[in-house]
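User: Could you check the structure of this?
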Amino acid sequence: MDKYNGLLRNASLEYSIDRGTHESITDFKSRIIYSIIGRMAMASLWDMPETGYVSINHLKNRIKELLFCYRQMYPEINDGITADDSLFADEIYNILMYSGCIYHEPNRIVISAKNDGCKGNALFTRGYPLSIKQCISGLGTYKTNIITAKSIKDLFLFDRQPLETYWESCTSRLEWNQMELDVDTEFLNMSPTYSSYWVTKGDNSGRVSILRIGPKGRQIYYFYKYENNNFYVSQIPYWRVENSYRALANACLKAYGALPKTEYVIDGDIVNIRFAYLPPVEEFYLWKLYSWPGSFLDLDNSFKRVCSLVPFEAIMSTMVELGYEFAEVNK
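Assistant: Sure, the predicted structure tokens are below.
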């Protein structure tokens, strides 16, 4: 298949996708192909199907068609990429949708308006014409050495307070009621080592923490504290946990010094990231947009990602401002 390798070399140069110093050639090819498919999926939004508009199914089918073609051209990647083409297509679609690169209009999906935001040496771009030369990390596009007044927070609509400030604002004026808890109550795991996010035994130190009650998908969340052999609770407004409880969970753990650091390993011009605790959904989809899966065989594993160095440093700097901590480790 050497006759096709020039295509990937050209794409890696065009999009500034570099190979890690210790990265296998097959993993490198898989990353390039993933980014090309994402780019061509975006291009498909200019298609004109018989329906007259581009639907979700049209986009996902295009992704699956592209993956099939690249599997034929580069059979060496097949052992390293999930055999579930629908899962692969869903992953790319979800990242593009939840990071704001595409959005719904009646009966169709469209590309977001042109916009950008700067952090450090990276200008993060969205909705730029495909003809404009840009670097790619994962599915996300960026340019370097360009400064604008708009920040990455403006581009991705981050209105987060720093974690400890957010926790204080959420818990400073609570009204408490005593509650008898049933055996199915789940408590946020406050341990510095995490085998799971939730445990069956509550924290009895008197600190304010989080619990939830009810069937999966319909849980009701409460702040709680344990005093005088009783649990006291204050219901958390639904809008605070509607999309994810992780914003509050990260803030809670940070307030008590229990939020683990995100570890990373620099490998040449790429960075291998290991999340010990997932950030809130909005922040995490920014990471997912600008990174590749740690394993294309296990797309459901969100804890390991691979990112180009320039966007990694910019996003990490933004997260540090919010109170998250990072630690560079040896491979």
